[in-house]
Design goal:
heterotetramer, A mainly alpha (357), B alpha/beta (164), C alpha+beta (176), D alpha+beta (372), C: 176 residues, 3 helices, D: 372 residues, alpha+beta, Cytochrome-c3 Hydrogenase, chain B
């Protein structure tokens, strides 16, 4: 049973149920973002022979709360020459963009915000909001560094959407569905039904698909990394070049919004990658709930697997960030247009050929 | 500093608890402007590096002053730089704090007599909360300065004291 | 490898009047004194002559010779009237490894020297520094402005011996 | 139809910027992301060193010398001491010379570690920076046990040293060297040979040899351009002629000779050579009295002298004019960073904004020395 139906059965009102249903991702995103900031600091610290936050709560676990509470108290500066409307809308729009993506991500078999048949296309479309927000921030700040960051970011995100979309088309050819929920549900029973292992296709096709699915997975992971501006693709906010990129001029809660959006976005892309290739909320081994005959346990287990896959990929993103240097703008573009897109196109053609045969 | 500071005329338990929470948040997450001036900046970097690790206290360098809470004036402030230091301080949103690190920014240090281009003490242009002596101060001294600043923040209040 | 004496002979032969002579330096170095307006020409010759090849200007330093008449004011401060400033060029050849020292002396009132910034690019900033600190003007220099002190500094040249520090700069008190 | 008019953008970088290595201000003239011109504005840390020298006696100058190139304070003192000793004609005891070389080479390693680490930071790799600082701490603790200071030492005096070595110094120094070799290989694997890093730095900011000489470039930057020129061998001072070490020269490993990667990697190679010198010096060091040659009163004869030593950043020279008094008449410093910074505009033309950071990091300037 979906959570939405559960709300309807309680309130007998679609509006209230839909409202409550749409709030659930917030209850996940905000604690996750706080946790991810803390995780990032701890992960980086331990990679660098340090300890990271230690003084705020045991092992600094309250650090993110202190940060947020402090950012709430900070003065909200809008520069005199800034374009105030754009400057104020930008953080909200950026957050809305990444929040909207959560609408079609299946958290478990019992919860998906909106079970759209065009889910995958919707994601590609809606993440454009983030670009708009970043461009507004860059322009509205009236700061050259911000503008630089914003223009770089827009160019980067728009470019890297192409390989992402190409890989998504490859998946559509195999699954014949754009619905993320169906996609996740179908990759069931064990990990060899995941798309990365050829999915739930029958016969020799499955074996033939495996290498190309791996290639697709690597391409989409690299391009999502670029879409969320993480190292080695973090040139829009490259600290050593552009100070803080498009959010250079933002202070207080508006900056916190960008921060929140960044970490939410990290999770969103990880979740999408795992939903497409790694079975989404499906367990790799089967469910304790079905063994013990406790049907209510299954969605909870599924949520656990979903969250752990997402967090694992977020962790990999952090790992890369604290290991790799950063690319230059032209190299970044060259990487996209000269390598990823041709490979993705060829991959698409080969997969199409396999599926036709 | 801050909008609410010294805005209330009477003290009560709710105010006291809110105050404690606010001050706790402020003192636990002092983001620093990533900004070094001279020799002391190297010791400041050493303090952020693995051996001493500023991050334990929640201090991380932010490249943009808009997102920072403290500025550590780490080194000699020259006349040419003083104008920029002042501008930088003005760019930090309230509540903001200043640590003056090293003799040079405290009082001109070894350049006090013949330094025709050295500002004798950064407190001639911006208000300073904590002075850390030394030339350059050891990382431990800077950490001590930070703890002193935290102590100071802990005692900030929203209550306006009656003028005697 | 040539000794400074030999190089002096070559220069004397080539430039005649412009090469004034050995400047007396009692310690380890002795310098060839050159006329202020001929130094660029001499520089080009030293750099391009196939026997000399002085391709590296090591150091250009300007100094106040403190030779004028000392006038003491009522408040105890003093200044020099007249006197000279000098610029010293250490140059060497990275290929044949010889080193010489050139010296140019100018009067303080009319401190103008031909620039060598086009001979050795390195001299560009060094000459700006000499202008900034001592107040020697280099003619034909690409960008003769202050370098270390603020561009709007108007209290004189700090490394002159009779320099007096101003009381305020842009509203900031300068003395301790 | 009118021609579309475009104009250049002026981007002001610094004095507060995460990667200008201090208080440097760069005025970039940009066409999109391409650099048309770079104008460095210096002087934000002008601490009047030369004026102080004219007002202080010779021994009093030593602490001020430290504060010039604060990453290589030992070597600044070394150079100053050598200069004044030549003026006075003092021969210092052999143990002092050995200790000076040991300290100088440790300082070279420490300084290069900062250079290499912050260069990684400029390119975007945060972790190598902290690894470098971790090892630098060990060297600083060696200095600290010798003279009590971590950064600015006032240790090498004219004619001698302020303290003799700590009894544990030699043991700890010998223990450090093998560990440090591991660090170097770790650094190379993490950063130097990283594909992204080589892409970012190879063929960027190429400095041809003739330009380098014409601009007076010295030290690692000159050697990276291909000239075998090291004052420790070419204009020997102290006891460097007693040690066996190589002078690494840039060979264009990943690109052209004299690019950023060469300049970076040359520093790594120099650290290896410093380890080699240290391994010999720590074994050969003789016993002796370190303070017997310290003069009671320093009053050099009238005249002038220019002496130079091989500082981690290049040729550090002191030009001292004495009028026979207790104070020098004029001290002028040949500061390598000042000269290298003058070259920046030349190196950056036609590159991207991101390359300015890469080039600035690779020439390794210290603003304290640029502005003095």
């Amino acid at each position: 049973m979906m959570i939405y139906d559960f709300f309807i059965s309680i309130f007998h009102n679609e509006l209230i149920a839909a409202f409550l249903n749409s709030i659930i991702p917030v209850a996940f995103i905000v604690p996750f973002a706080l946790f991810a900031v803390y995780l990032e600091r701890k992960v980086s610290a331990h990679m660098q022979d340090r300890l990271g936050p230690m003084r705020v709560g045991a092992h600094g676990w309250l650090q993110s709360f202190a940060d947020i509470l402090k950012l709430l108290q900070k003065e909200d500066i809008v520069a005199a020459k800034a374009d105030k409307k754009l400057f104020n809308i930008a953080p909200v729009l950026t957050f809305v963009g990444c929040y909207a993506v959560f609408a079609v991500i299946p958290f478990s078999s019992a919860y998906i915000g909106a079970n759209l048949d065009l889910g995958l296309l919707y994601i590609v479309a809606v993440s454009g909001f983030v670009v708009a927000g970043i461009l507004m921030a860059g322009w509205g700040s009236n700061n050259k560094y911000s503008l630089f960051g914003a223009v770089r970011s827009a160019a980067q995100i728009v470019s890297y959407e192409i390989p992402t979309t190409l890989v998504i088309i490859t998946i559509i050819i195999v699954t014949k569905s754009l619905n993320l929920y169906d996609l996740s549900v179908n990759q069931t029973s064990n990990m060899f039904n995941w798309m990365i292992f050829g999915g739930y296709v029958e016969g020799w096709h499955k074996i033939a698909l495996i290498p190309f699915m791996f290639i697709g997975f690597i391409i989409i992971y690299i391009s999502t990394l670029a879409e969320v501006n993480r190292t080695p693709f973090d040139i829009p906010e490259a600290e050593s070049e552009l100070v803080a990129g498009y959010h250079t001029e933002y202070s207080g809660m508006k900056f916190a919004m960008f921060f929140l959006a960044e970490y939410a976005n990290m999770f969103a892309v990880s979740a999408i990658v795992s939903a497409i290739f790694l079975g989404g909320f499906q367990s790799p081994f089967g469910y304790l709930g079905s063994t013990l005959n406790l049907p209510w346990l299954i969605p909870i287990e599924q949520f656990f697997w979903f969250a752990s896959k997402g967090i694992f990929f977020v962790f990999v993103q952090m790992w890369l960030r604290w290991t790799l240097p950063r690319l230059r703008v032209d190299q970044l573009m060259a990487m996209c247009w000269k390598y990823l897109i041709p490979i993705a196109v060829v991959n698409l053609l080969i997969v199409a050929l396999i599926m036709v045969l | 500093m801050g909008l609410l500071d010294k805005q209330f005329s009477d003290d009560n338990i709710i105010l006291a608890k809110t105050e404690d929470l606010m001050n706790w948040a402020r003192l636990s997450s002092l983001w620093q402007v990533g900004f070094g001036l001279a020799c002391c900046a190297i010791e400041m970097m050493a303090t952020s590096a693995s051996h001493w690790d500023f991050d334990r206290f929640g201090v991380i360098p932010r490249p943009s002053p808009r997102q920072s809470d403290i500025i550590i004036i780490s080194g000699t402030v020259t006349l040419k730089m003083a104008i920029r230091v002042k501008r930088l301080y003005e760019q930090i949103p309230d509540p903001k704090y200043v640590i003056s690190m090293g003799s040079c920014s405290n009082c001109g240090g070894p350049y006090w007599e013949h330094g025709y281009h050295v500002l004798k003490g950064v407190d001639r242009v911006i208000p300073v909360d904590v002075y850390v002596p030394g030339c350059p101060p050891r990382p431990e001294a800077l950490l001590e300065g930070l703890l002193k600043l935290q102590e100071k923040i802990r005692n900030e209040t929203m209550v306006r004291k009656a003028v005697v | 490898m040539k000794t400074p004496q030999e190089i002096f002979e070559i220069l004397k032969q080539k430039f005649g009047e412009s090469v004034i002579g050995f400047a007396d330096n009692k310690l380890l170095e002795f310098a060839i004194e050159i006329a202020p307006l001929a130094i660029a020409e001499v520089g080009y010759f030293l750099r391009d002559d196939s026997e000399l090849l002085f391709d590296n200007l090591i150091l250009l330093s300007a100094l106040d010779d403190m030779t004028g008449k000392k006038v003491t004011e009522e408040d105890g401060s003093f200044r020099f009237e007249g006197g000279t400033l000098s610029v010293i060029y250490h140059i060497e050849s990275t290929s044949s490894r010889h080193k010489i020292v050139l010296k140019v002396v100018v009067p303080k009132e009319n401190a103008e020297i031909e620039s060598v910034a086009y001979v050795w690019n390195h001299a560009n900033w060094e000459e700006r520094e000499a202008f900034d600190m001592i107040g020697i003007k280099f003619l034909n220099h690409p960008n003769m402005i202050r370098i270390l002190m603020p561009y709007n500094w108007d209290a004189g040249y700090p490394l002159r011996k009779d320099y007096k520090n101003p009381e305020f700069y842009e509203g900031m008190k300068v003395p301790y | 139809m009118s021609v579309l008019k475009t104009e250049e953008m002026i981007l002001n970088m610094g004095p507060q910027h995460p990667s200008t290595h201090g208080v440097l201000r760069l005025e970039l003239e940009l066409d999109g992301e391409l650099i048309i011109d770079v104008k460095p504005h210096v002087g934000y840390l002008h601490r009047c060193f030369e004026k102080h020298c004219e007002a202080l006696t010779y021994p009093q100058i030593v602490p001020y010398v430290d504060r010039m190139d604060y990453l290589a304070a030992m070597y600044n003192e070394f150079g100053y001491a050598v200069t004044v000793e030549r003026m006075l004609g003092i021969q210092v005891p052999e143990r002092v010379e050995y200790i000076r070389v040991i300290m100088g080479e440790f300082q070279r390693i420490a300084s290069h570690l900062v250079a290499v680490g912050t260069y990684g930071l400029d390119i975007g790799a945060f972790t190598p920076f902290l690894y470098c600082f971790r090892d630098r701490e060990r060297i600083l603790s060696l200095f600290e046990m010798t003279c009590g200071a971590r950064l600015l030492y006032n240790y090498i005096w004219v004619g001698g040293l302020s303290h003799d070595l700590h009894p544990d110094f030699l043991r700890l120094a010998k223990e450090f060297l093998p560990d440090f070799k591991n660090t170097l290989s770790e650094l190379n694997n993490l950063l130097s040979y990283n594909k992204i890093f080589t892409e970012r730095t190879a063929n960027v900011g190429v400095l041809p040899l003739d330009t380098a000489i014409n601009y007076g470039v010295t030290g690692p930057n000159l050697r990276a351009s291909g000239l075998k020129w090291d004052l420790r061998k070419d204009d020997p001072y102290s006891i460097y002629d007693k040690f066996d070490f190589d002078i690494p020269v840039g060979q264009g490993w990943y690109g052209t000779v004299g690019d950023c990667w060469d300049r970076y990697y040359l520093r790594v190679l120099e650290m290896e050579q410093s380890v080699k010198i240290l391994e010999q010096a720590l074994v050969q060091i003789p016993d002796g009295n370190i303070s017997e040659a310290i003069p009671k009163r320093i009053k050099p004869p009238e005249g002038q002298i220019y002496t130079r030593v091989e500082n981690p950043r290049g040729e550090l020279g002191y030009f001292i004019v004495s009028k026979g008094g207790l104070q020098p008449h004029r001290v002028k410093v040949h500061a390598p960073s000042f000269i290298h910074l003058g070259l920046l505009g030349e190196l950056c033309k036609g590159h991207f904004v991101a390359d300015v950071i890469a080039i600035l990091g690779s020439i390794d300037i210290v603003l304290g020395e640029v502005d003095r």
